[in-house]
Design goal:
This protein has helices at residues 119-128, 146-149, 154-173, 191-202, 229-238, 261-266, 269-282, 284-287, 303-316, 318-321, 331-338, 347-351, 353-356, 377-384, 390-404, and strands spanning 9-15, 37-50, 53-58, 63-70, 73-77, 131-137, 180-181, 208-210, 241-245, 293-296, 339-343, 361-363. The chain is of the alpha/beta class. The protein has a single domain (9-19, 114-404), classed as Alpha-Beta Barrel (TIM Barrel), CATH 3.20.20.140. Strands 8-9-10-11-12 form a 5-stranded parallel beta sheet. Strands 3-2-4-5 form a 4-stranded antiparallel beta sheet, with no helix packed on it. The model has no long low-confidence stretch (mean pLDDT 94).
Length: 415
């Protein structure tokens, strides 16, 4: 049973709120007007209609909001359920944080709590909750940079991808000794360019890449097609972990068009479950021994049954599926060395930890989204891990994440 002090947490899923000048400041001057930029507009109402996709109504009577504009359209509007608003932290006292104030209200950068946008303030906020290091996914361009995939001019889009990664390495992470851990994006429309971007960033210490859990939903080839092999080879070669956030396929399961959004929110793990089934039977893990994937915000309680079912399918249906041509050993065999599950609240997963895999579980705070356990992260994990031995607590909160990100205990990169 846990008896000692908790280790400082390494969170594998938090969220970047990109500064307004990120792209404009890094684009060539002659292309500055084509860079993603921020405009302040009046938003009357907003409604979520997909993963990271919102329906907006603008009007003079609306509330001022900062909107990201790219490729002649609004790609994102800041909202208080994604970026903590100042009014949710009364008097600047984080112990009084009121999550009920996080809703679909559209906001400006002036309305945001400073930890959303400032890297040093982010570190201070998370440290106050027992978190030492944090891996952050993009916001304005969606969880794996899908916005650039949809752009009309792919040469400009490539500049956008590279500018984001340069800012990530040089400004958000570089000065802070891996307290903010770098996570790159890639040009999803060209696998050779994607592989090159993996290697370019790995050479400067990046060991994680955001990718789509189900690229087929983005109009891209599946992982079974062979198309992505150069990308996976680059990840295998550089030991870059493929991080797939829920919603990174721009599609979330909905049971019907009129189902409450709470139904979709309850079912968010479904894409992660489908993606893991893909990877287990793809043959990628036997071919790329250093390839590792992580399911960010996918939770972990569902993992034992999926592994059980995959092994049963592998064993029972070989006579007509011929699965062993690609996957010579039971699928769960590969899971142990290649897959990380990530959770923020999952009591069932912790109760099943030995079946989930004590070396395959990582923790996330999801700051600054409404699902976040901040600023009470320390208190939450102390409670949920109360019956877990200290050695396993260290793995869940820190050790497995360090392994996933190729960092040592002092947050130094392990080559």
């Amino acid at each position: 049973m846990s008896s000692g002090p908790l280790p400082m947490i390494v969170s594998v899923d938090d969220h970047i709120i990109e500064p307004p000048d990120l792209w404009i400041s890094r684009f060539p001057s002659k292309l500055a007007d084509q860079a993603p930029r921020v405009e302040r507009r009046n938003i009357v109402s907003t409604r979520m209609v997909g993963a990271g996709i919102y329906e907006l109504i603008e009007g003079d009577e609306g509330r001022p909001a900062d909107c990201w504009i790219y490729d002649d359209k609004v790609i994102y509007v800041h909202k208080s359920h994604v970026a903590i608003p100042n009014w949710a932290v009364p008097g600047g006292d984080i112990t009084k944080f009121d999550k009920s104030k996080m809703d679909l209200t559209c906001i400006t950068y002036d309305d945001m709590w400073i930890g959303c946008t400032d890297p040093q303030a982010r570190i201070r906020d998370l440290e106050a909750a027992g978190v030492e290091a944090s891996l952050g996914f993009p916001t304005a361009v969606r969880f794996c940079g899908q916005v650039f995939l949809e752009a009309s001019d792919k040469e400009v889009a490539l500049l956008g991808v590279q500018a984001y990664n340069d800012w990530m390495v040089e400004e958000w992470c570089g000065p802070y000794g891996n307290r903010n851990v770098p996570l790159c994006i890639v040009p999803l429309w060209d696998v050779e360019l994607a592989a090159a971007e993996i290697r370019r960033n790995a050479a400067r210490g990046v060991r994680a890449v955001a990718f789509s859990e189900l690229p087929i939903h983005l109009g891209l080839p599946s992982i079974h097609s062979g198309y992505w092999d150069p990308f996976f080879e680059a990840c295998n070669e550089t030991k870059t972990t493929v991080c797939m956030h829920i919603g990174s396929s721009s599609k979330m399961l909905a049971t019907s068009d009129d189902a409450p959004i709470a139904v979709t929110a309850t079912l968010t793990f479904n894409n992660a479950m489908a993606s893991l089934s893909d990877y287990l039977f793809s043959g990628l893990f036997p071919r790329f021994p250093n390839l590792r994937v992580a399911y960010s915000e996918g939770q972990i309680g569902w993992l034992p049954y999926v592994l059980e079912r995959a092994d049963d399918v592998w064993e029972t249906h070989e006579g007509w599926m011929h699965t062993r041509k690609l996957v010579p050993e039971p699928p769960s065999t590969y899971y142990a060395d290649h897959v990380f599950g990530c959770f923020f609240r999952d009591n069932h997963g912790i109760e099943s930890i030995h079946k989930v895999g004590v070396n395959n579980v990582t923790y996330e705070t999801d700051y600054p989204h409404t699902d976040t356990t901040w600023p009470h992260t320390h208190e939450y994990v102390e409670k949920v891990l109360a019956n877990v031995p200290d050695e396993i607590v260290h793995k869940i909160l820190r050790g497995n994440a360090l392994d996933m990100l190729s960092l040592d205990e002092d947050l130094h990169l392990v080559n």
